[in-house]
């Protein structure tokens, strides 16, 4: 008969216990994994990506100028582009020169510096973004800009914290002829405490003026910035400095003189305040028509003219309370010798003669840039005989811009806009603007 038989169990060895523990740990690990949420993608370390896999980063962020460039053209600025599904999120630029700012496109496709770069400067660009899967990536580029063989410099007429009249243009003078005029215009920015519409006008190749469409609003602060460092003004010729200036537009003081009525009206802040008798240029030396601007004043001013010394018409006189408005020598000034003619007859050598007390009142109000309009003269005014920007209509003035664009300025700065997008012009002469064709002979 066979009885039941139970085999005695074997005692476990150390090796089998170790395998069992490992198997149990694996089972526990699998069980835990089965209970946990799905694992998320591991974020890449931006610095590791930039430092160890530059080729990978370059697939998503491209910086121009490229790393190591030694003679980058500063007029091209800096561009960062996202490629292959990447995005640009932030760009910083380190340099020993002027700070560099820029604009990031709405979708993060690109970033570009706002202005040209400085000449002979080193830059380090750090661009942050993401790759096509949303992982963070960082790219850098260190480069330097060229040292130009030819340069130009720019000066501004306006003085710091000075006050000017409502007709005053911003006047820039270049020491070299400019051929790339559009690039220079794009480098210029204006901030105004009150909204202003205006335009740039090239008077030749070495002078550029800004004039408002209508007279400046009274009591406006104007801040000009020329981002000219790095602008290529002509092939191979670059600006090497930026230019800034802040000045004020004061009260509105506008003079209108009639050579036939023999009177001048003086308007202060839009209100006629004075009506004075005058005597303008005699028939052989008529005062020329046109809307001019006061240039400077002196008390006294020595005036010499009328022909060779010793001739019948020669004069050499000290003239008081004299405010100049043409480069050829026309003034509003005190003329006690012609008081009997003022209001009736033209007897001057081209100036506007005033009674002494009236001349003093005008002198004490006048600042450079106050409009003076001469009317009804048989002589036409001459362009550039004084500050003659207001000889031109707004349409004519726009034609002098290389961009043919208007400028809208305000407290936040300025921008170029199409002239067709501007609101209607409601200003009227003589208080708000000048009359088109004002320089033509009567």
Q: How much β-strand is present in the residues? A: 25-35%
Number of helices: 6
**From the coordinates shown, what is the CATH architecture of the largest domain?**
Beta Barrel
CATH topology of the largest domain: L,D-transpeptidase catalytic domain-like
Name the shape in a single word.
elongated
User: Can you identify the CATH superfamily of the largest domain?
Assistant: L,D-transpeptidase catalytic domain-like
What's the quaternary structure here?
Answer: single chain
> Number of DSSP strands?
31
Give the integer mean of the pLDDT values. 89
> What is the rounded distance between the termini?
151 Å
Give the strand order of the largest sheet, numbering strands 1, 2, ... along the chain: 9-11-14-13-30-31
Uncertain runs with pLDDT below 50, 5 residues or more?
1-52
Computed Rg: 37 Å
What is the CATH C level class of the largest domain, in words? Mainly Beta
